[in-house]
Structures are given as structure tokens and as C-alpha cells.
Amino acid sequence: MFKKLLVLVFVLASIFSCKSAKLKKGIINKIEAPFYNNQFTGLLVVNAKTTDTVFSYNASKYFTPASNTKIFTLYSALQLLPTHIPAFKYKTEGDTITILGTGNPTFLHPFFNDSTALKMAKNYKHVKLIYNNLDDEKFGPGWAWEDYDTYFSPERSSFPMYANVATISKTDSLHVIPQVLSKNVTEVFTPKRRNYNDNTFYYNKKNQDTIEVPLVIDSTLIKQLWQAIYPNKITFAKASNKPFDKVAYSNIATDSLYKRMMEVSDNFLAEQMLIMASSTLSDTLSSQSVRTHILKHQLNDLKQEPRWVDGSGLSRYNLFTPTSFVQVLTKLYNDIPQERLFNLFPVGGKTGTLKRYYKGGNKPYIYAKSGTVGNNYSLSGYLITNSGETLIFSFMNNHYRQSTVEVKHHMESVFEWLRDNY
Fold first, then answer.
1. Which residues pair with 86 in a beta bridge?
2. Which Gene3D superfamilies does the record associate with it (predicted)?
3. Nearest to residue 271, comparing CAs of 80, 137, 420, 397?
4. pLDDT above 60: residue 74
5. What are the two backbone dihedrals, phi and then psi, of residue 142, each rounded to the nearest 5 degrees?
6. Alpha-carbon torsion (101, 156, 188, 211), positive or negative
7. Could you state, in order of their start, the residue ranges of all structural domains in the chain?
């Protein structure tokens, strides 16, 4: 009986070994094809249940991650933020309320339209606003300066309004949000959308689309925006050393913020999310303090410490390895129920940045975050095989000269091979 059992174990091990060898050979044949000759590629695939490494290729090498960085931002926010958004901190004294920004990105945001601050301020005769409690610069290190007028590069601030952009559209006439800036918009034939240093905007006469143009955030603009809402009610105060012990929470669940950031790869939400997370550590806001805190505590076991400089991945200074992404994705998988976790990620062939790629036929099989910046594309997340296994992966591609669409198609053949053969 014992000999028969040994034979059975040996046969099963041999079958598994053959399948594993076939799987690895199939992937190697794909990623060592001539298509990949003149680029840098890394791939790590791990079984979520057993933690066994299914495939590894340059997994400990550093890559430019682009928006894959948002996976680290998501993890940080989930560690530090409560279930509902901390809209702002405040103190009250008689008929006066003093409001301190927490970096909350949803206030009057076109998608979320949080109005918690307006409702609170309405009940007081005087409103003092502290807006200079942010240590971060308005732009992240390594951001491209020429993106100053593009929708994906808004300035960072302690108390954002309207997503820190002017939303301009036209039907019969120009429509501008916030409306108070309507007089700052000129219709003209130009590719430029805003002056470099001030809030003078341009709407191309040939354009009939809705455009979002980043605002230049300064005290003059903040005063103008608040004055339009509550005339002669708002004054500014400087940050003090006395801590704010009261927090006003909006009715917006933080999961809705995470989902939006991940699905459409919203850079503004990502940057402000780290800033907002820092409000749980101190009244002085700093995304750097959050990155340092998370790496020192929750992520002190990373096999390769990343160079992590922003929340969005806009910066080419960011450097991460496939192993680091798989480690963080594994922590998320172990800490959060699968239904909730997968709901936060774009779904292949279904939603967000993956809507046109990685289709699964009758059912989705990819739940992942993409990252794209010139000549670099990566995808990290979860893959469900036909056998029902969950694989955690990070597939990173840097410095290619082909089209990103071609890169995606070649990656898709690897994912389909894993789905069908594991």
C-alpha cells in the first residue's frame, strides 16, 4: 500500500512538473521573442493561495512604473484613511469657525460634488480658512513642465476646489465651472489652454469638447472662489501650533474615491489622497511624510525598497520592481475581501483604462492597474485562470519604441497562456 502511494505521489509530481515546465517554456518563448529585443521587460507571477512563484523574469530589477504607482497610493490610503472622507478639520468660537484643509479632493469636484464645507460654513457668521498647511510643492518632483495646461496635471493643494481645474464647454455659448472665472476665458485659435503663470484660459474655436484646465492655485484665486460663494464671509488665517481636534467627515465613502482613482487613473485624486492620508498623522500636510511612514512601518519587509516620489506616477523619478508590486498586491489580497478588492480595480474588457483590452470572453479574467508614460507600459494586478486559481502578477515594460497597442497585444498573449494553462 505504501509503495502504491509513493508511486502515485511520484506520478502526480511528474505530471505537475511537466505542466509547470510547459507553462514556463510557453512564457519564455513569448517574452524572449524578437519583439522584446530592444526594450526592458520584467514579469513576476505568484499563486495567491500557495504563494508559489509561477514565473519570474527580471523581477528584482527597477522599472519606471508610471501609474502602477497608484497601487502603493491605494495601499497607503487603505492603511490610514477611515471609511468616509475627512472633509476638513475645524475649531469653533462663538459665531466663528476656523477651517483647516485636509487635502480632501472631493470638495465641489465635478464627479463627487462634496459640499460639506459649504453646509458647515453656512451656520457661522465668520469663516476663517487656513490654506498654507501643505509642505508639498504644487507640482511633484520630475513632473513634465509642459503639462501645466493639461487635464492630468492639476496642482496639489491643502484645500482643493472644483478638482483644481476649470471645466470649459460650449453649446450655444461658453460654459465655465467655476462660473466666476468665465471672464477669464477667451475663444481663440490656439493649442494653448492657459497662460503659464496665471488663470487666463483659452478655448479653441475649433474645439467643441469639454476641456479641463488646471488652475493656478494661490491666495488670490482661493479668495475669489470663496467670495463668489459666500461674499464678505471668508477671511484667511495662518496655521498655528495648536492642534485641531475636530474633524468633519463627508458622506462620501473613501472606496468610491479609490475606485475612481484606479479606474480612470486620476492623477489629481492620487496626489490628494496621499496628502489627505497625511492629515491623519499631522495637521501639517505632506505626501512625503506618508510615503516615509508607510515604507518604515507597513512596508518595511519589501525585498527591494522603491524610489517613491509621488502618488500618481507622473514622475519618471519613481523606480519600482515587479516584486515590490506583487508584495503589495499580495498584502491587499490577504487583507481585503476579494469582492471589495476587485471592485476597486479596472476590469479587463469591461471598465476604465482596461475597457478595450484583456477581454475574457464570457467572463473577465484580469483585474489590474495599468501605467503608461512615453515608451513605458506596465500592468499589475490579479488574473483568474480557467481552473479557478488566482494569480498575482506585475508585468513591466520600459524603453520600447513600438506602439503601446502592440505591447499590450503581446502582453495579452502571455496572460491568455497563463489563464488557459495554469
1. 249
2. DD-peptidase/beta-lactamase superfamily (3.40.710.10)
3. 137
4. yes
5. 85, 5
6. negative
7. 25-75+280-421, 76-278
Cα-trace Rg, the chain: 24
Nearest one of 317, 321, 411, 420 to 368, comparing CA atoms: 411
Question: Is 129 within 8 Å of 96 (Cβ atoms)?
Answer: no
User: Phi-psi bin for 39: left (phi > 0), alpha (psi -120 to 50), beta?
Assistant: beta
How many angstroms separate the first and last alpha carbons of the chain? 31
Outline where 65-133 has alpha helix (H).
69-80, 116-122
In the chain, the amino acid numbered 134 is: L
Using CA atoms, how far apart are residues 141 and 315, in angstroms rounded to an integer? Answer: 6
Strands 126-130, 234-236: pairing kind? parallel
Per-residue pLDDT tens digits for 224-248: 999 999 999 999 988 777 889 899 9
Task: Give per-residue pLDDT as tens, 274-293.
Answer: 999 999 999 999 999 999 99
- Cα distance between residue 407 and residue 378, in whole Å: 10
pTM of the full structure? 0.94
Question: What is the longest distance spanned by two Cα atoms in the chain?
Answer: 91
Percent of the chain with pLDDT over 70: 96
The amino acid present at 83, given as its one-letter code, is: T
Close Cβ partners of 72 (under 8 Å, ≥ 6 residues apart): 294, 306, 308, 320, 328
Distance of alpha carbon 95 from the chain centroid: 39
Cis bond before residue 34 (omega within 30° of 0): no
Please state, as a whole number, how many other Cβ atoms lie within 10 Å of the Cβ of residue 402.
14
Q: How far apart are CA 1 and CA 183, in angstroms?
A: 89
What backbone phi and psi angles, to 5 degrees, belong to 73?
Answer: -65, -45
Burial state string for 103-135 with b = 16 or more CB within 10 A and e = fewer than 16:
bbbbbbbeebebbbbeebbeebeebbbbbebbe
